[in-house]
Write a structure and sequence with these properties.
The complex is a heterodimer. Chain A is an alpha+beta fold. Chain A folds into 4 domains: about 90 residues, Uridine Diphospho-n-acetylenolpyruvylglucosamine Reductase, domain 2 (2-Layer Sandwich); about 110 residues, Uridine Diphospho-n-acetylenolpyruvylglucosamine Reductase, domain 3; about 100 residues, Alpha-Beta Plaits; about 160 residues, Alpha-Beta Plaits (2-Layer Sandwich), CATH 3.30.70.2750. Chain A has 17 helices and 18 strands. In chain A, the strands form 3 sheets. An 8-stranded antiparallel beta sheet of chain A has the order 14-11-13-12-16-17-15-18, with helices on both faces. In chain A, strands 5, 6, 7, 8, 9 and 10 form a 6-stranded antiparallel beta sheet that branches. A 4-stranded mixed beta sheet of chain A has the order 1-2-4-3, covered by helices on one side. The longest helix of chain A is centred in the C-terminal third of the chain and has 20 residues. Chain B is of the alpha/beta class. In chain B, the strands form 2 sheets. In chain B, strands 2-1-3-4 form a 4-stranded parallel beta sheet. Chain B has a 4-stranded parallel beta sheet with strand order 6-5-7-8, sandwiched between helices. In chain B, helix 1 crosses helix 3. Chain B is globular, with a radius of gyration of 20 Å. Classes of the chains: A alpha+beta, B alpha/beta. The interface between A and B is medium-sized, with 40 and 29 residues. Bound molecules: flavin-adenine dinucleotide. The site of flavin-adenine dinucleotide has 33 residues of chain A, from strand 3, helix 6 and strand 10. Flavin-adenine dinucleotide binds next to strand 3, helix 6 and strand 10 of chain A.
């Protein structure tokens, strides 16, 4: 980026912009501790400038400058994604959206809330709670994830099973297109707001969202201990088919439970079985109905144990703390897979086989987010202090995705690191449609370049698969004790 | 009293690696709220520490990073939010210690250490003047140090020397008299509790102060100690444990002690027709687990309508006055206080009560700046008004 342009933005935005190398360095990584050895030669992740616009006009103004000079723009809000979604690959402008925060209006007649995009889910939840209202769904990263960030990703999490994806709850958005035009979009406009959901910041900046809400209700929590994955899947499906849809349906596999036990964080100190957390919300009547569903499921099945309500409540309280597994690390690698529920037992069986053949522990857990699909996370501990081993271990992430793919799954979220697997995520016709949208809206390719649509050449699917398989082979032969 | 969970803290290097960089710590961090750059977020600071201390990717500690480390109120909200249960408050103290060891701590910390070394308190007054505030009591001599008293009141530097905070010990002493408690103070033998030194990274120096105070308490044959300053209380309760080993000393915050006196009927409270909210001091609430005692006191006053702020207890917002922030960055400390005052105002309360002289000072300044019709009272002052 030319120094004059950096200076122009600095002059205009004063304290809201910085080109300090120290400040910029904080924006050159996300959650994933990918070693510089791997990233440095391929990408330029240090932005030239970081700007924090405070309103739609400023977003628009910055995007106009970027468009005029064809400067890459990387949007970042909570920065809680892991695929380099918010990390620049070609320097340029890092747009930190966190000043775009706050509730604009609540419409209790329409049961919607209008928010600025960098409002975090926890902030929205607290705000609504004061009015006896609540969001219909939220991610399990609620303390940091922003409304705009979740909308720009896939938007499934807690509450999705009952209320659908975030996209299905969004009535309208305001967006600033790559050339800097602010537009208000609904499902009926051209472009449609749907284009921007899961676009990962590649089509423009969402500056306001109107989202459906619900009345705050009581919750009731159940925790079932199943003896094997098959039984857990069957109970899952029985719960889903029940007359009352759970607000949240979460599972933990036995290896994960044991890993948690080692760290002293297993619910109720349990160390065996497959846990199914079933959380209902609703009126007294609905909760009574839910109670009956759980009774029917547990009474008929002697092998399914209904755990004490305190344990179930604790499990709910800890719903945002999945990362505690990292205490066994210090690093944690893994794959998150969008997986058909019906294939969950086979997936877990193959994961177990992989764990044995590579001699390491794999922990799986996940959320059922539609009647047919779950987002399944399989993680393992690694140690980033041993760089070479760590890089080799990264190949096992691809192996996990291969298992998921075998059972009809695909990566959940793309960014940079899952882009080599984009062919598994979208059918060719769908991918073609998405690429056309990208071309139509962002002909110059300034918005979050290098993400989502195709992998950079060096990471093209063939190179990627070959390299990962080779490293996994090395890991299998030489790394059994790692 | 709720219990603070045991820490899982290992070492700075290990904890910095364990940090998931998820950013949960960011949302409620007061300093991130007012600065807004990622470098000011707890996640940012831990990430940078990881590069320096775990990965050893750089030898130096850049000045900008030193500034960011000093920009923290040690309020502990990050630790409550942390998804990997890192005792972040402890990690910040460790980091400040590393700065001091490298001779890179802010000049304000060096000045503070020198003042403490010279005067044994955080001011330039002679430590013999510790009981100056007591001149306004009916019988100032009644609180002169005395061995074998049932209770010793550890007054703390701010309440002892700052005229605007003197109301706190005065009210406390009057209530204790009213309840006919057999209490004393350490007078000029009370040294700073060591908290400012710990917060500045001088753990070894702090230990000398802790040791002195413990030895004096032992020599005075005291077995119950109460402190009105939450930071002093925190040091006595947590950081003095090692030195106190084998000695039977009950340590209470004044709110706990006074709540007990009210419960036992030793203090009778009259009606007050006021809407009151309560600001949880970080070192008393989040960092020590005392939430109920002050609320019980407020709720025991007939006629009072008590309203909670949007952020309370574990999630209470900081007042900006902790972690020696005021000595290095008073502007941001004041901006943090202003955020808290917005919440106070939203409750519609006519009085905001707290249990920390520092919080009260920060809130008073912020309320005055906005010209709001809200009184700031220490819990002891509130009790006194209701007596
Ligand atoms: C412990 C943990 C649990 C998680 N649980 C879930 C879960 O349940 N469901 C789930 O889907 N994900 C989950 N995630 C991933 C992530 O937290 C979410 O996807 C989150 O919603 C991302 O929001 P963010 O504000 O952090 O976005 P960021 O990480 O800042 O950004 C995400 C993407 O959106 C773009 N973007 C952000 N804001 C805007 C905007 N206003 N306009 C345009 N583009 C924008 C960015 O460029 C980036 O590509 C989890 C992560 C962690 C660490």
């Amino acid at each position: 980026m030319k120094t004059e342009i950096v200076k122009e933005i600095l002059d205009q935005y004063g304290e809201q912009a910085t080109d300090s190398p120290f400040e910029r360095s904080f924006y050159s990584r996300d959650l994933a501790p990918v070693p510089e050895l791997l990233v440095g030669p391929l990408f330029k992740t240090l932005p030239d400038i970081v700007v924090r616009p405070a309103n739609t006009e400023e977003v628009s103004d910055i995007l106009k400058t970027a468009w005029k000079y064809t400067i890459p723009v990387t949007p970042r809000a909570g920065g809680s994604t892991v695929y380099f979604n918010t990390v620049p690959l070609h320097k340029g402008i890092l747009m930190d959206l966190n000043l775009l925060k706050g509730v604009v209006a609540v419409d209790e007649a329409a049961m919607t809330v209008t928010v600025k995009p960098a409002t975090t889910w926890i902030e929205l939840e607290r705000y609504l709670s004061g009015k006896g209202l609540a969001p219909k769904s939220f991610p399990s990263s609620t303390p940091v994830a922003t409304i705009g960030g979740w909308f720009s990703m896939l938007g499934y999490g807690i509450g999705s099973l009952k209320y659908g994806s975030l996209l299905s709850q969004v009535r309208s958005i305001e967006v600033v297109t790559p050339e800097g035009k602010a537009r208000r979009l609904t499902r009926d406009t051209q472009p449609s707001l749907e284009w921007f959901a899961a676009a990962e910041g590649t089509l423009g900046i969402v500056t306001e969202l109107e989202v459906e809400i619900r009345h705050q209700t009581q919750l009731k929590h159940y925790l079932l201990q199943c003896s094997d994955p098959l039984e857990m899947r069957d109970k899952m499906q029985a719960v889903i088919k029940g007359a009352e849809v759970p607000f949240n349906l979460h599972f933990t596999d036995q290896e994960c439970l044991q890993g948690m036990k080692t760290l002293g964080i297993a619910p109720g100190g349990l160390d065996h079985g497959y846990l199914l957390a079933v959380d209902y919300e609703g009126s007294d009547q609905e909760l009574e109905q839910a109670e009956k569903i759980i009774q029917t499921i547990t009474e008929k099945n002697q092998s399914v144990r209904l755990l004490p309500v305190e344990t179930a409540e604790l499990e709910w309280e800890e719903k945002f703390k999945a990362m505690r597994l990292k205490r066994g690390g210090p690093s944690l690698l893994g794959a998150e897979i969008w997986l058909p529920i019906k294939n969950l037992p086979q997936y877990l069986a193959d994961v177990r086989k992989m764990s044995q053949s590579y001699n390491f522990k794999l922990f799986s857990y996940g959320h059922v987010v539609t009647p047919d699909y779950a987002t399944v996370m399989t993680t393992f501990n690694a140690d980033e202090m041993h760089t070479i081993r760590y890089i080799i271990n990264l190949s096992l992430v691809k192996k996990l995705h291969d298992i998921g793919y075998r059972y009809g799954g695909s990566p959940y979220g793309v960014g940079l690191w899952n882009a080599p697997m984009i062919g598994r995520i979208h059918q060719p016709s769908e991918l073609k449609r998405l690429k056309k949208i990208k071309r139509d809206l962002d002909g110059k390719g300034t918005m979050n370049p290098g993400k989502v649509y195709r992998a950079p050449f060096i990471l093209n699917p063939l190179n990627y698969a070959l390299a990962m398989d080779m490293l996994a082979g090395i890991r299998k032969v030489f790394g059994r004790g790692w | 009293m709720s219990q603070k969970p045991e820490t899982l803290y290992t070492t700075l290097e290990k904890e910095a690696l364990i940090c998931a960089r998820c950013g949960y710590c960011r949302t409620d961090c007061p300093i991130y709220k007012v600065i807004g750059w990622e470098s000011a977020s707890p996640r940012g600071k831990v990430s940078f520490s990881r590069e320096i201390f775990a990965h050893k990717q750089r030898r130096d500690i850049p000045e900008e990073f030193v500034r960011r480390l000093a920009q923290c109120t040690l309020c502990g909200s990050c630790a409550v939010a942390c998804s990997t249960t890192i005792d972040l408050r402890r990690l910040w103290l460790d980091l400040r210690q590393r700065l001091a060891e490298a001779g890179q701590e802010p000049q304000a910390y060096v000045n503070l250490r020198d003042t403490l070394a010279a005067h044994k308190n955080i001011t330039n007054f002679s430590n013999d003047e510790r009981l100056e505030w007591a001149q306004d009591l009916d019988d100032p001599e009644s609180i002169e140090p005395r061995s074998g008293a049932d209770v010793c009141y550890f007054v703390g530097c701010v309440s002892s020397f700052f005229p605007q905070a003197a109301e706190v010990p005065l009210a406390t002493a009057q209530i204790l008299h009213e309840a006919e408690c057999d209490f004393t103070t350490m007078g000029g033998e009370e040294w700073c509790c060591g908290f400012p030194l710990l917060g500045a990274g001088y753990a070894d120096e702090a230990r000398k102060f802790i040791r002195h105070n413990v030895e004096k308490i032992k020599a005075m044959d005291i077995h119950t100690l109460i402190a009105s300053c939450p930071s002093c209380y925190h040091v006595w309760k947590h950081d003095s444990r090692e030195v106190l080993k084998g000695y039977d000393l009950k340590i209470q915050h004044t709110t706990e002690y006074l709540a007990q006196l009210i419960k036992e009927g030793k203090i009778q409270l009259n009606e007050l027709d006021e809407v009151i909210t309560y600001h949880d001091p970080c070192d008393l609430g989040r960092n020590s687990g005392i939430y109920e005692a002050p609320r019980a006191i407020i709720n025991s006053i007939p006629g009072v309508k008590f309203v909670e702020m949007a952020h309370n207890k574990d999630y209470a917002l900081c007042c900006g006055g902790g972690g020696n922030l005021q000595s290095v960055d008073p502007e941001n400390a004041a901006r943090i206080a202003a955020l808290r005052v917005e919440e106070i105002q939203a409750t519609g309360a006519s009085i905001v009560v707290s249990a920390c002289q520092q919080c009260e000072q920060m809130l008073t300044a912020a309320i005055r700046k906005e010209n709001l019709p809200i009184r700031v009272l220490d819990i002891s002052q509130l009790i006194l008004e209701a007596l």
